[in-house]
Amino acid sequence: MHPYTAARMMSTIGALHDREVDLNLVVGGYKPDLRALGSLIGKDQRYDRLVEYGRVMAALLDQGPDDRLAFEGEHYELSGAQVFPPLPPGLRSRTFLAGASQAAVRAAEALGATRLAYLGELGADDDADFAGTGVRFGVIARETGDEAWRTALKRYPSRPAREAVRVLAGTESGWLRKFWRDSQDERPERDVYWMRPFEQSRDFCPFLVGSYDEVGELLHRYLRAGVTTLILNVPHDEDDLFHTAAAVRRTEELAVTGRAG
């Protein structure tokens, strides 16, 4: 989608519904899709293009009612472009950028975007560097750990991980490959940080499984490690939102008291 088209869609949604729309910028990493779209430039060049894309969108969404945009870059060129209706004041989107490479880090800094990182497992000393990042994960939380694990194992019974291997064969994504390698490490049978949904290629993120206290305390550790944005994987059903909210309330309590119980 051209950045002008995307900016018009966002401004229209803002004008019609009086709400902001967050923007997630990605370069793509699945080779068959890239070939199908004729996107044959290298990964670092795609991040350069993404920075230009984000700057065009920002300029269009910051326009006043009488502004026109003239822009000439390496990948995009606009002359007298105007987004109408203009985005209402106060509805400027938050911008996120997915990636783990140095090119992704530079692109996020150039755009002032929150970088979305893969949710790696924390060490015993919580020394992983998540400073300023957003992370995506699923949650299966219940009042007790036993109940949470019964639900998790019913939804994701053990089975071969052939599909994930097929997907990995076609990707350029370094974080996805690292994620796969990490998923093969031996873990306690009922570790709160759970990788089976990813191993089965059913969800491309880890899950946090356990009681409200267990999930809430692990989330609190990620916040202490520097995570600033939590992105919840699509819930299985409405009840999951209720249970996740209970775990997050535990995280909030820990943030207030400053300690884990």
What does this structure look like?
29% of the residues are buried. The chain contains ten helices and nine strands. The chain is of the alpha/beta class. The chain is globular, with a radius of gyration of 21 Å. Strands 1, 4, 5, 6, 7, 8 and 9 form a seven-stranded mixed beta sheet that branches. A two-stranded antiparallel ribbon has the order 2-3.
Task: Offer a concise description of the structure.
With 261 residues, the protein is of the alpha/beta class. It contains 10 helices and 9 strands. The mean pLDDT is 86.
Low-confidence segments, given as residue ranges, are none
The rough form would be described as globular
Q: How many helices in DSSP terms?
A: 10
Largest sheet: 7 strands, mixed
Secondary-structure-derived class:
alpha/beta
Order of helices and strands: HEHHEEEHEEHHHEHEHEH
Strand content: 15-25%
Average pLDDT confidence is: 86
Kindly state the number of beta strands: 9
Radius of gyration: 21 Å
Distance, first to last CA: 48 Å
Q: How much helicity do the residues have?
A: 40-55%
Features:
44% helix; 7-stranded mixed β-sheet; 261 residues; 16% strand
Question: How are the SSEs placed, and which strands pair?
Answer:
Elements: H1 3-17, E1 23-25, H2 31-36, H3 43-61, E2 69-72, E3 77-81, E4 95-98, H4 102-111, E5 114-117, E6 133-142, H5 145-155, H6 162-169, H7 174-183, E7 193-194, H8 196-199, E8 207-211, H9 212-224, E9 229-232, H10 238-257
Parallel strand pairs: 1-4, 4-5, 5-6, 6-8, 6-9
Antiparallel strand pairs: 2-3, 7-8
Helix pairs in contact: 1-3, 3-4, 9-10
